[in-house]
Design brief:
Shape: globular
CATH topology of the largest domain: Na+/H+ antiporter like fold
CATH class of the largest domain: Mainly Alpha
Number of helices: 17
Radius of gyration: 25 Å
Largest sheet: 4 strands, antiparallel
Length: about 500
């Protein structure tokens, strides 16, 4: 057993951190058996290893913020890179409305609840502090949404998956901007002795515009410049392409930061632009590289945030935090979604109801809660604890019920199956890849591959039978249950 009061430093951080990551990865088997969200599991392992558990201490908020911020850039970049704009276009404005108007409405409604509940349970609480707490928890966490929708292979009807991913990817930067702005206002008002906020109005408006405009511009310009370079450059192996693509994303983030724009929005925008490349070299390898990077980023971020938590210090905040969380989940989020989607004919009522439930909180809000701690805002420790409790409530209540709710509302494609590639990396230039399981009906006209009479342009590349991989030929006899890997491409047959 690890002795108590071990402080995580540069000397033991890699050792103990790697042990925690191994435990978290092995625990995914247990989590999947009970339907537990993986990120909740990682957060729980961090808490068990923390000060109130095994006694590991990690209270370097500056380092946690830097690690968390970098992890979020990786998560957002991967999400943007895998976004298919053609599929997202039909729900583009719905997603933008949710990530902007929806966040603002959530901040306003939740801020009032925080103010009222804070005054009732915690003494005098200003409305600005209420809005600050609301801004921190206003966004739908990208890491949580991507983890649940993609890793659980949940395919949603009405293009809901693309809309939710667009919302969660673009509202994290907006929530971070609002959080930073409110910290500036609160800090300046404290310096001015509670004077009028009117002198700050122009500063707030200009900062908000600068963050959004420069963030979008930096991401779009760098992404647009990266595309022709990636098309013409010939590198050996997909790993170098992945590193180069990531470097362009980090360049967009750095340019945005230099211009005092939103770096998270910049790297997300750059990734979307780069991701629309036709015939990206080594596309499968590149996406596999970033998928692994995202898993590491999520694990490290949630474990560190779990280590920072002190459950024993949160008990006196449990009731007000739960009340704030429940008001956010059952009132603020549904009302905000309803109003943000009011101008649109789609999605349907059931889809809007599901969207209002996908207000998942995760590492993003906990990361944003460290901003007031670093800035020295009064009561920032209590804010961090409240946000942590709300995040746990959201992961438990919403994360655990998300997939059953989608099925109950009839919004999930139950017959959806991913294309089986047998682990092979097939270049996109060869054509579209499909898989098919042979049935008795397929063999009614004959049981050889030649007798299937496949249309022109369709080729069977591989046959899997009882775990063995067979190279197909025309006289090969097929059996029911054989799995065929098929390529749909051009042919020179007459």
């Amino acid at each position: 057993m690890i002795p108590a009061a071990i402080v995580l430093t540069g000397e033991n951080l890699l050792l103990l951190g790697s042990v925690l990551i191994i435990i978290a990865v092995l625990a995914t088997k247990l989590g999947s058996r009970f339907g537990m969200p993986f990120l909740l599991l990682a957060l729980g392992i961090g808490m068990l290893a923390g000060p109130d558990g095994l006694g590991l201490h990690f209270n370097n908020y500056h380092l946690a913020r830097e690690i968390g911020h970098f992890s979020m850039t990786i998560i957002l970049f991967t999400a943007g890179l895998e976004t298919d704009f053609h599929q997202t276009r039909p729900v583009l404005w719905q997603g933008i409305s949710l990530s902007s108007v929806g966040v603002l409405l959530t901040v306003l409604i939740t801020g009032v609840f925080v103010w009222l509940i804070g005054n009732a349970f915690l003494g005098a609480t200003s409305l600005l502090v209420g809005f600050l707490v609301a801004a921190i928890i206003s966004s739908t966490d990208s890491a949580s949404v991507f983890s649940l929708l993609r890793n659980k292979k949940l395919q949603l009807r009405e293009n809901l998956g693309n809309m939710l991913e667009l919302e969660s990817g673009s509202n994290d930067p907006f929530a971070a901007t609002l959080t930073a702005l409110l910290i500036v206002v609160i800090t300046e008002l404290n310096v001015l002795g509670g004077g009028s906020p009117s002198p700050l109005t122009s500063l707030v408006v200009w900062t908000l515009v600068r963050q959004l405009v420069f963030g979008l511009a930096a991401g779009f310009i760098v992404g647009a410049l990266a595309v022709p370079v990636l098309k013409r450059l010939k590198l050996q192996g997909g790993s170098l392409y992945a590193i180069l693509i990531l470097s362009f994303g980090l360049l967009a983030s750095g340019v945005a930061s230099f211009l005092q724009g939103n770096d998270l929005l910049a790297i997300y925008t750059a990734a979307i632009v780069i991701g629309q490349m036709k015939k990206m070299p080594f596309k499968r390898e590149v996406h596999g590289f970033f998928d692994g990077m995202t898993w590491i980023a999520q694990l490290v971020m949630f474990l560190i945030l779990g280590l920072m938590a002190r459950p024993s210090h949160m008990l006196h905040l449990l009731v007000p935090a739960l009340l704030i969380g429940l008001s956010l989940i059952f009132i603020a989020r549904p009302v905000s979604v309803l109003l943000a989607l009011l101008p649109f004919r789609r999605p349907s009522y059931k889809a809007r109801l599901f969207t209002s439930w996908v207000g998942l909180k995760g590492a993003g809000p906990i990361l944003f809660a460290s901003y007031p701690l670093i800035a020295g805002v009064r009561g920032s420790a209590e804010i961090f604890d409240i946000v942590f409790i709300i995040t746990l409530l959201s992961l438990l209540l919403q994360g655990w019920t998300l997939i059953p709710l989608a099925r109950w509302l009839g919004l999930s494609e139950e017959d959806y199956e991913r294309v089986e590639t047998f682990g092979l990396d097939v270049p996109e230039e060869m054509g579209q890849m499909r898989d098919h399981t042979v049935t008795e009906v397929d063999l009614q006209g004959g049981n050889t591959l030649r007798e299937l009479h496949l249309p022109h342009g369709i080729r069977v590349m591989m046959v899997r039978r009882d775990g063995r991989f067979l190279v197909p030929h025309g006289s090969m006899e097929l059996l029911p249950g054989d799995q065929l890997m098929i390529i749909l491409g051009e042919t020179d047959d007459d």
